[in-house]
Amino acid sequence: xxxxxxxxxxxxxxxxxxxxxxxxxxxxxxxxxxxxxxxxxxxxxxxxxxxxxxxxxxxxxxxxxxxxxxxxxxxxxxxxxxxxxxxxxxxxxxxxxxxxxxxxxxxxxxxxxxxxxxxxxxxxxxxxxxxxxxxxxxxxxxxxxxxxxxxxxxxxxxxxxxxxxxxxxxxxxxxxxxxxxxxxxxxxxxxxxxxxxxxxxxxxxxxxxxxxxxxxxxxxxxxxxxxxxxxxxxxxxxxxxxxxxxxxxxxxxxxxxxxxxxxxxxxxxxxxxxxxxxxxxxxxxxxxxx
Amino acid sequence: xxxxxxxxxxxxxxxxxxxxxxxxxxxxxxxxxxxxxxxxxxxxxxxxxxxxxxxxxxxxxxxxxxxxxxxxxxxxxxxxxxxxxxxxxxxxxxxxxxxxxxxxxxxxxxxxxxxxxxxxxxxxxxxxxxxxxxxxxxxxxxxxxxxxxxxxxxxxxxxxxxxxxxxxxxxxxxxxxxxxxxxxxxxxxxxxxxxxxxxxxxxxxxxxxxxxxxxxxxxxxxxxxxxxxxxxxxxxxxxxxxxxxxxxxxxxxxxxxxxxxxxxxxxxxxxxxxxxxxxxxxxxxxxxxxxxxxxxxxxxxxxxxxxxxxxxx
Lengths: 290, 313
Prior knowledge:
The complex is a heterodimer of chains A (290) and B (313). Chain A has 290 residues and is mainly alpha-helical. The model of chain A has no long low-confidence stretch (mean pLDDT 86). Chain A has helices at residues 2-33, 37-43, 55-60, 66-97, 104-116, 121-130, 138-141, 149-160, 165-172, 177-188, 190-206, 209-214, 223-232, 234-243, 253-270, 272-289. Chain A contains 16 helices and no strands. The radius of gyration of chain A is 24 Å and the shape is globular. By secondary structure, chain B is mainly α. Chain B is 70% helix and 1% strand. Chain B has 14 helices and 2 strands. Chain B has helices at 3-19, 21-37, 67-74, 77-109, 113-124, 131-142, 148-155, 170-195, 199-207, 212-237, 244-250, 258-261, 264-275, 278-306, and strands at 50-51, 62-63. Chain B has a two-stranded antiparallel sheet with strand order 1-2. Chains A and B meet through helix 1, helix 4, helix 5, helix 6 and helix 10 of A and helix 1, helix 2, helix 4, helix 5 and helix 6 of B.
């Protein structure tokens, strides 16, 4: 039994160390973001800063800053996009699981083919250009993100598990298809709809592919893309400092960068308990069903 | 199929649509979206055989046969980016899988509920963060003047290293970051597989006097193998596709690192958006798809041969 306890201790220690490896880097970024700029320049990045300062956050949240503007863009895009995406997917999922639709498997094949054969980024780009989906907010909402066949199949599989007798009895009571879909099947599918809402929401929030491909106009930069640009563009921080009227400070570029990174993951931390619960559930279902 | 039967099918479909018109209406938005962004993009693949001009469009373009492919394969880039894509993916698959397996096996031995829950929450966290945020994490460690790594080197009396101009270390750095972001998530998926193993197997082994180590070696690992092999084969099928988001966020337009970090996807991106040559970009993309296609079918064939349940189609 002695050996058992020792190996248990080693295993607990191992997992603790791995967890710290996952956590400490993020903590480092957080600490840098609240470190006084002079202190960073003097000592380099540190988990235990000498002087604290919240100037970086003050600059970010000053009205008119690029960070705040991008934050708004991302929030709007994520909210509108997720609502539309879940609606489209849920409705299609209902049809694909409706056993009175004889050609539902043909429909499923129609979606499956585009999941397997993708044309690549060049056709994707040329198509979006042809549709005029460049340099406007729709370019951040519609291409790629608005509908995913993978999520459709998640919804279909869930709805297929709802007993068909519900549909039959509702039909006998005189309900039509739309009533059955919106009053019975969609409310019963809330768990899977919550899962795909998180999938879509996270995709929208973390997306910068659409921006790098389709957006040249700085006013439309979403948060992630702005963060990417921030790495190389000192002028953006300069601008923030000027807007905030903080030009007598050292330009706090290091802490502003890290603070923007922290602000970017803010909502993810906030929603984390839900995210974890539904995400893992969805992933496990997805990986088992293919 | 003879014409009579086909006509019957079309009539049937028509009747089905009329009878279930509400259902067909509900699926229509998704169908239109898929038609536009799926099926309608396929013809654009032809630009690989054209000298594409944005003004003329695809139908009036000048056809050049395989010129774009020749241009790519004659350049010294073709080998480098193909090698990098495959090499990095192999590193990711090997180290990602081994780390995740090790973590899941250890987690399976632990019994304290709260500890398990907390550690899994922490491990999953990097998965939800975008590569751009992670590029800042990376910078905090590897920055020349302020980074943690150089601070440690200096404390040990060693000189600072400018990591962002050292291409040779980047395969290691990228593998570390890939494992850091994804291993926790994979471990949780593997753990779900382990939890699904029939308890009676362990009870029987216990009666036979097996210890935990033997049970892990003789029951858990063999029974996990199907899942591990399926997921690995899936990754091998995608070995020609690099993670653009990762590479571009971490390396960006830093040309000094291209020799070890440039992959097909970043190359295609630059041809399209920075050089502005959709035709060459498409040619490289087609090359990628063609090889990728062979690999997907090849691995699936292997799966079906050795392992019937694992085959995808």
